[in-house]
Amino acid sequence: MKPRAVIGAVAVAGFKRTLAQALDCPIENDFRPLSAGQWIEAANPGWNAGNTLDAVPDEGSWNNAPLQNSTLSHVKSAGYKSVRIPVTYADHFVTGSPEWKINSTWLQRVSDVVDMATSQGLYVITNMHHDSWSWADVSKPDANQTMIQEKFYSSWLQIAKLLACKSAMVALEPINEPPGTTAEHAEHLDKLNKLFLKALAETGGYNSQRVITLSNLGMGADRIQLFKRPENVTNPWAYQFHFYSPYDFIFSAWGKTIWGSAADKAAIAAELSSVRGNLSAEADVPILLGEFDASQLNLEPAARWKWFDFVVRTAKSLGMTTVLWDNGLDNLDRATGTWRDKIAVDITMSVLRGENNSLADSTTDGSATTQESSAYVFNKVGSGVTDKTLPFIMNGNNFTNLTVGSALLKEGEDYTLADSAVTLKQAFLAKYLSATAEPGTKANITVSFSAGAPSQIELVQWDVPTLSWYSVPAKDVAKGSDLQIPITWKGLHRVAAVKIATSEGTYLFDDWTQYLPDLQKGRGTFNSQWNFDHDRVIITKAAVEAALASGKNTTFTFEFYPRAAGNGNTVGFALTA
Ligand SMILES: *[C@@H]1O[C@H](CO)[C@@H](O)[C@H](O)[C@H]1NC(C)=O
Ligand SMILES: *[C@@H]1O[C@H](CO)[C@@H](O)[C@H](O)[C@H]1NC(C)=O
Ligand SMILES: *[C@@H]1O[C@H](CO)[C@@H](O)[C@H](O)[C@H]1NC(C)=O
Ligand SMILES: *[C@@H]1O[C@H](CO)[C@@H](O)[C@H](O)[C@H]1NC(C)=O
Ligand SMILES: *[C@@H]1O[C@H](CO)[C@@H](O)[C@H](O)[C@H]1NC(C)=O
Ligand SMILES: *[C@@H]1O[C@H](CO)[C@@H](O)[C@H](O)[C@H]1NC(C)=O
Ligand SMILES: *[C@@H]1O[C@H](CO)[C@@H](O)[C@H](O)[C@H]1NC(C)=O
Ligand SMILES: *[C@@H]1O[C@H](CO)[C@@H](O)[C@H](O)[C@H]1NC(C)=O
Ligand SMILES: *[C@@H]1O[C@H](CO)[C@@H](O)[C@H](O)[C@H]1NC(C)=O
Ligand SMILES: *[C@@H]1O[C@H](CO)[C@@H](O)[C@H](O)[C@H]1NC(C)=O
What we know:
CATH class of the largest domain: Alpha Beta
GO biological process, one term: cellulose catabolic process
Oligomer: single chain
Number of helices: 12
Helix content: 10-25%
Protein name: Glycoside hydrolase superfamily
CATH architecture of the largest domain: Alpha-Beta Barrel
Distance between the termini: 71 Å
Number of domains: 4
Structural class: alpha/beta
Bound molecules: 2-acetamido-2-deoxy-beta-D-glucopyranose
Largest sheet: 8 strands, parallel
Domain Glycoside hydrolase family: 60-328
Mean pLDDT: 94
GO cellular component, one term: cell surface
Domain Carbohydrate binding X2: 372-458
């Protein structure tokens, strides 16, 4: 038997504080116990080191290099207080049943990364991640529950022993997004949670006092009523859930690139409040919103800023701590240490400082056939520029100044202000935009306010992009491959949406989208059916196969920003039968 943690009172610098010193931990390892509420409050906001130690089969296997200390410095200096370190153990077992020994090199790496984060003063939560679908899926009809429980318990004995003497800044989460939908699956998850707690109790160190999170099946906001709180949990615990809502906006499905109507906000408020509501009976369990994000790759940025402001603000009002999901492509560019959408990060920080953000206004009505956004001034090749008025949602702040780089713009000459709008003058815009200017991004204006995050107006000269070719017989696409078509961008380097229709006018996917508004009808889903990179648009293998199976000519109409019915900012590509 290992010695158990003992509690003692130690006099430090003339005052007494309670210090729990575990006999089996080095004497210099200080552990000042935190309640779950204290941990949750101190960890706000957090950042996920996504697609990193959770990559399958190994760290570095996906789109990110192994995690570096400098990446965590960038996270810390942006204002984040914690880091969630998802870890997949699945491919690191070196023996089978019943020991399920984990590779000691891998365990050491996990320990080192945890130390790297705490050495920077970042709170940590680490877990067992994609194991949830690779071997620990309790919802599979042929799941061997005995094996899952044996392997899970044995894994947690090893992980808990590894982390037993870490400081109270380190919290643990048993398993990420466990699949399942039924009460029976919830019973199985409850058994796993109990085994996790048993492993913590048996591994000594500070584990019996360590903050943990517990979750429902799937970890969404929806199945919370199936959550079974294990009886007699003695560890301080918080509830964790993940938030990717609304689905169509977050995953760029069905042409939904805008967000922010009163109904959009009410839906999010209701979803977040229902999580709080279901846990309030349990003496207000602290809540960790452990993952959330809306991809910056192709959403309209003003919509993204409004979404971040609203989600973080609502979560804060409900006492929830938010942890940004970052797969390495969406938020922090780890190679350069720059944030791809710094404004969304600043919006998060100012919400948490208690400030209001002034936000670029943008179209929120899905039935509008022209979408406007104060994040941009677009000018089409062939058109001259005029004064441009951009509305803002001020939220009680005033404009303070407008800059391009370090140059301060002159009020009256370059722009004029109204209470909640900026008018950029023709003479100023004409320095960047004109009938004959080359297409592309021309300048970014930073708009500052008396409080809250700054906003950005990007000046973009655009024309319709061109493709290297415009059709190919579907049967000629290499079997099992995505179809990649080189593109010459003529404005923003992003696709907004893709309409996928057969020569008979039917939609290849989700025929029900015929009932959606004009800018959404027949549009496919980002990543599942279409994608793009820096110099290509992509029709996925699944979409090629569906076109082939339809036996019909299928046109993929790529749409770009600005989005307006009939503005011609689209190119069609045909997969012929
Ligand atoms: C443990 O992992 C290291 C690093 O990947 C590898 O070199 C080693 O062979 C592994 N050990 C076993 C027993 O598989
Ligand atoms: C990580 O960087 C921080 C800040 O620069 C430094 O204090 C710390 O010692 C570093 N940790 C490691 C493990 O290199
Ligand atoms: C289920 O797992 C247990 C423990 O690993 C093992 O002993 C048993 O043979 C497995 N059962 C089946 C049907 O594979
Ligand atoms: C929880 O604690 C209560 C009161 O001590 C006890 O009656 C009950 O059996 C315990 N439940 C479990 C699952 O240990
Ligand atoms: C609990 O969650 C369900 C499902 O999300 C929701 O319908 C219900 O309103 C919630 N209950 C409370 C008290 O918030
Ligand atoms: C913050 O914004 C809200 C909503 O627009 C407003 O009611 C409130 O007065 C603002 N607070 C400050 C300090 O401006
Ligand atoms: C905004 O400007 C108005 C008019 O000048 C002034 O009365 C108000 O105090 C200002 N508000 C802030 C937050 O600076
Ligand atoms: C612009 O305003 C912001 C916020 O009020 C302020 O921090 C900044 O120093 C100002 N910039 C210039 C160049 O005056
Ligand atoms: C403006 O900012 C965007 C990112 O928000 C960037 O992609 C673009 O290159 C910038 N344009 C200029 C002219 O700096
Ligand atoms: C399909 O496309 C091919 C090649 O462009 C064309 O010859 C054929 O007529 C089209 N079929 C239909 C039904 O539109």
